[in-house]
Amino acid sequence: MLPPMPTVQPRPVAALSAILFAAGGSALLYLFDPAARNSFYPVCLLHETTGLNCPGCGVTRAIHQLLHGNVIAAAHLNLLFVLCLPAVAWWSVRIIAGWFSGRPVVMTIRPAWLWTFLAIASVFTVLRNLPGFEWLAP
User: Fold this and answer.
1) Are 81 and 66 in contact (CB under 8 A)?
2) pLDDT digit string, tens, across residues 75-108
3) Domain residues for 50?
């Protein structure tokens, strides 16, 4: 088993900065549609060069749809991302609560969970690029 990552005790300014950064990014994604033709958002280099979809293809557009309350549209763009949101939300709330309460935040991921996620992401990536599984592609 891997040793736990070091305990992180950021200053309140760092915690507030992280929250403001996330809020600013969310506002940007809410206001400007990444699916627009002349979008300023970066493109996926793998998709641009090979035409294949990586596990992250469609995430920016999915976040835009989620911010507008369109969960089904977001799932059509990147199902893996939408299914991972509850775990990400739980982890984020746990970290932020630790920051504001002054408790140390221990960032650990068990190797079994990491390998399970990597296996699921790999299968998802392969499937979304195969004929018959177009419904997984953005």
Assistant:
1) no
2) 999 999 999 999 989 988 888 788 778 777 777 8
3) 12-136
In a domain, 7, yes or no: no
Is 1 inside any structural domain? no
pTM of the predicted protein model:
0.81
| pLDDT in the model for residue 8 | 56
Distance between CA atoms of residues 82 and 58, nearest Å = 11
Other beta carbons less than 10 A from residue 43's beta carbon:
11
Which regions in the chain score pLDDT beneath 50?
none
User: What is the count of structural domains for the chain?
Assistant: 1
Work out the end-to-end distance of the chain between its first and last CA atoms, rounded to an integer number of angstroms. Answer: 36
How many Cα atoms occupy the beta-carbon half-sphere of 60 within 13 Å? 17
Q: Which residues pair with 56 in a beta bridge?
A: none
Residue 109, domain member (yes or no): yes
List Cβ neighbours of 107 (8 Å cut-off, separation of 6 or more).
4, 5, 8, 95
